[in-house]
Q: What sequence folds into this?
């Protein structure tokens, strides 16, 4: 009787392993999701400022001087556009992720605009 129960558990474990092999994402998919790639956009400073005013000033201040979040007046002196893009897309700490709020192109535009602030 015990043999049949153990065989059943073994069979169920093997079936579960096979199902997970085909349904879990691979390393490349996980890496792509973990580090989104920044789309290429032409910088539109007016649109970037509008996005920042609509989404960022409540935490980073109306002059980007800081507040709840850090100051962004010199963001480009220590962050690349890609780093800013990843941070805005995924969020970090108390900063929320904006990947579902803003389009990728909007985030890339803001990242380029902030990267120019040195």
A:
């Amino acid at each position: 009787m015990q043999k049949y129960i153990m065989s059943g558990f073994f069979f169920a474990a093997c079936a579960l392993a096979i199902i997970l092999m085909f349904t879990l994402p691979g390393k490349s998919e996980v890496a792509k999701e973990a580090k989104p790639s920044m789309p290429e956009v032409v910088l539109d400073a007016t649109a970037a400022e509008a996005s920042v005013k609509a989404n960022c000033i409540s935490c980073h201040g109306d002059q980007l001087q800081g507040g709840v979040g850090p100051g962004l007046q010199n963001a480009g002196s220590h962050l690349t556009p890609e780093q800013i893009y990843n941070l805005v897309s995924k969020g970090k700490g108390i900063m929320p992720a904006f990947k579902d709020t803003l389009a990728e192109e909007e985030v890339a535009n803001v990242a380029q605009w902030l990267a120019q602030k040195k």
